[in-house]
Amino acid sequence: MADLMTVREVAEYLRVTQKTIYRLLQRNAIPALKVSHSWRFDKSSIDEWLRKSAVGVRASVLVIDDESTVRSLFKETLEDQGHAVSMAKNGDEALEQLQSKDFDLVFLDLKMPGLNGAELYQKIRAIKPKLPVTIITGYPDSDTMAKVLAQGPFGVMNKPFGEMDIINATKNFLRISPEA
């Protein structure tokens, strides 16, 4: 039996509003079934739709995290979506890459040895002020997070997270529409 979701459930799964789901339904841009007077969504069809929607969309993404498992999760997930992924395990590596290459999006770990995420974020803003940055953290209420908040707008991904969180954050911050 298919794993069917409601509008509310698919909105939560995709991390968008229900209004966005209804707009996609109006344009026939999302796979759905009409059951009586309600919409239902097959989870496997939604997953396949997400994979296909990223085909041909290529962004250059820099992932900065001292944990190799986190870097690997981002690399595998984003490369499967057709993106080019560069990785840095510390602030010095990241700055080197940022000065030599253009990126469309940065995922930045907040707590790292040496140059921490707040300090690195400040340097990124000085080098590339319009570059979208998403902070990845397991410490959303920390002093370091408060320092970053004072520096300007960015996205936040709380640890733990999975593949769908990475895909959705990438699409949101690169402004890639689901029907791209």
TrEMBL record:
Response regulatory domain boundaries: 60-174
InterPro entries xrefs: Bact_response_regulator, CheY-like_superfamily, DNA-bd_dom_put_sf, HTH_17, Sig_transdc_resp-reg_receiver, SinI_DNA-bd
One GO term of the biological process aspect: phosphorelay signal transduction system
SUPFAM superfamilies reported for this sequence: CheY-like, Putative DNA-binding domain
Residues recorded as bearing 4-aspartylphosphate in the entry: 109
Recorded coiled-coil stretches: none
GO MF entry, a single one: DNA binding
Keyword 4Fe-4S: no
Domain of life where this protein originates: Bacteria
SMART domains linked: REC (SM00448)
Name of the protein described by the UniProt record: DNA-binding response regulator
Source species of the chain: Dehalococcoides mccartyi (strain ATCC BAA-2266 / KCTC 15142 / 195) (Dehalococcoides ethenogenes (strain 195))
